[in-house]
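Appendix B, example 12.
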Amino acid sequence: MTALTLSTAGAATLRADALVVGVAKGAKGPVVAPGAEAVDKAFDGKLATVLETLGASGAEGEVTKLPAPAGLKVPVVIAVGLGSVPEKDAAFDAEALRRAAGSAARALAGSKKAGFALPVASVEDAEAVAEGALLGAYAFTVYQGGENKLASKDKKNGNGPKSPLAEVALLGTKPRDKAFKAAADRAVAVVEEINRARDLINTPPNDLYPESFAAVATAAGKEHGIKVQVLDEKALVKGGFGGLLGVGQGSTHGPRLVKLAYTHPKAEKTLALVGKGITYDSGGISLKPAGHNETMKCDMSGAAAVFATVVAAARLGLRVNVTGWLALAENMPSGNATRPGDVLHMYSGKTVEVLNTDAEGRLVLADALTRACEENPDAIVDVATLTGAMVLALGHRTFGIMANDDAFRTSIHEIAEEVGEASWPMPLPADLRKGMDSPTADIANMGERMGGGLVAGLFLQEFVGEGIAWAHLDIAGPAFHEGAPYGYTPKGGTGSAVRTLVKLAERTAAGDLG
């Protein structure tokens, strides 16, 4: 991963491949942002004029490359847009800093070192710039190049994939200040785990299936002192995990339930996280239509987010117990696959009539939720790419939050907004529950078509123990980005919800959630 250093050098004296400065959108044109004073001086105070001449406005995501003038030790200056100039005495929004740093880092692919002289008015600003730059520098190139001679030749000729920016030097900080160092260390730990989640999401399903995912989790557990337990098919049969078994029985790759337990000796609270881990979703017998299968390797994004969060909590040494449950299965059609009309006997003891085998995520989550609740955590959050209905409701960049406790839902929404992850609180209307009534079983896995994302949430709520605060994050929209990269968001897996869950764990450790 890209290295992060807190540099003691000034913008005029730093030796690097490029220097990144901020430019904001003012009422009369671009305005040079704080942190770029030395660069502006090198341009004889005319940096804003030069940028405007080149068509720059300071709009968010805008990147303008300039040859550096005499007086600077770098060959290139990159001016990145921060959006509108803040109101008087206000600082730039942290998310604007993240996105600007991410845009710059993406533009610097192939470079060895770049200095980031963006506005850093506080420790929080420094952490935001660090996060954005490290997230933006991500690239998934595992399957590109390799031993392929033609690909290797392309890379030598500059036509192959470029390596991510190798080093981010953060200027305007206090390297010897404990708070700045802690912020930098936190940014590195969290982003490394987000990028681990991204790698898992981007890995093709012929290489990532329940057993191999469980192996990755086991290895990480050994490395970071996390206790890992893996329930294989025999253990799932013995335990009566009918949801996981029913979804996974059509595949040659059997299902797994993975428990990761990070504990702190002085923890007073326990947070349980449950992730949907469908390593590939064909829809099963209710086969997905053409055009909807190509990205279904991403249907384990919830499990990837939970896994990354538990490891991040361990790396940060948070004073809270965090237990992650990865509900892993591959949903395939075959002669052994669950059929529409089949009835599954769930771990909870309830029976579920399967009306649509493509509504499989709620089935594996139901088993994992029931098991997680048996340990009586103080709160439980499940994360899943659960419904296309949530994408229709909130678009591709916002995830929905449902909960059995309004205050808990509000807290998670506020945390998500604070860390820069777009989210929206959603209801669980009681009238939609009736649509899941089954004449054959205790409940059906489908209900009314309208409000399908809420119906899925109501289904999951049936498997949450009494008295436990529970929230459901439907990340179907932002988990996998199919368009062009923007800000710090790459094409492919995004690591959605990890920042929210890590901050939730930190708040729980601090006792801020009651």
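The two ends are 37 Å apart (CA to CA). The longest helix spans residues 178-202.
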